[in-house]
Amino acid sequence: MQPSGHRLRDVEHHPLLTENDNYDSSSSSSSSEADLADRVWFIRDGCGMICAVMTWLLVVYADFVVTFVMLLPSKDFWYSVVNGVIFNCLAVLALSSHLRTMLTDPGAVPKGNATKEYMESLQLKPGEVIYKCPKCCCIKPERAHHCSICKRCIRKMDHHCPWVNNCVGEKNQRFFVLFTMYIALSSVHALILCGFQFISCVRGQWTECSDFSPPITVILLIFLCLEGLLFFTFTAVMFGTQIHSICNDETEIERLKSEKPTWERRLRWEGMKSVFGGPPSLLWMNPFVGFRFRRLPMRPRKGGPEFSV
Fold first, then answer.
1. Prediction pTM value
2. Catalytic one among 136, 147, 150, 161?
3. How does the average pLDDT of the chain come out, rounded?
4. Where are the beta strands (DSSP E) in the chain?
């Protein structure tokens, strides 16, 4: 273990910022935590933005097929109403969870805080070791990992998911779990409706089962079945791994690296409470809990892939 003096000399020997870093330390220090909390987090990654748009388009497509191909032409009024309400509620909850996951700060560590003054303010004990990220020049908290796409260190980073264009970390894991759960449920519902629709169309010889022509109806239903199977398989697996990680208080990165826990683990329900907040209740299923409108004026930051509004 290195003494504190050597640690400070090491920071001085490796400059935290260079002339090309374009990092404004004065503006960073003047920003309060309340000010940062009012900003919407968004990652400007081309692949992630394309994947996020594709996710929305696929959900909208599924809603179109379910509503206009299967339910509205149905002669059973209550069948159409009940299934329409259920499917559209699941779709809204899934897309809302997707937005909350994408636009919530996953637990980013402030950039450039690995300064000599900041380290002295920590009042470290002799021999106590802290870690500095050489990529974003920050003091890495325990269990934080650097994301090469977000260009930030993320607390309790589980993984970076391009489908939500964001990291899954300490502050947005709950919304990611809800997103995978609602997508899986809506996929199962769509598959069940497709099965009933195929049976109805075969019995009616494809004459009155849809307002579209039989070839178009078949193509739309087959594509929806494939989409539902793929979405259900992916999201069900992700939902299971996320619940397993939460109950074992171990992120996916920590599991893959076989990191030995140096922290006090919160197992099972304690882990669930720490992620979803409070004792078990229906509020766990609500992606709108804690939502508030953010400030609208855009304020792009230099030297980072995210911008704030």
1. 0.80
2. 161
3. 80
4. 42-43, 131-133, 138-140, 144-147, 152-155, 159-161, 166-168, 299-300, 306-308
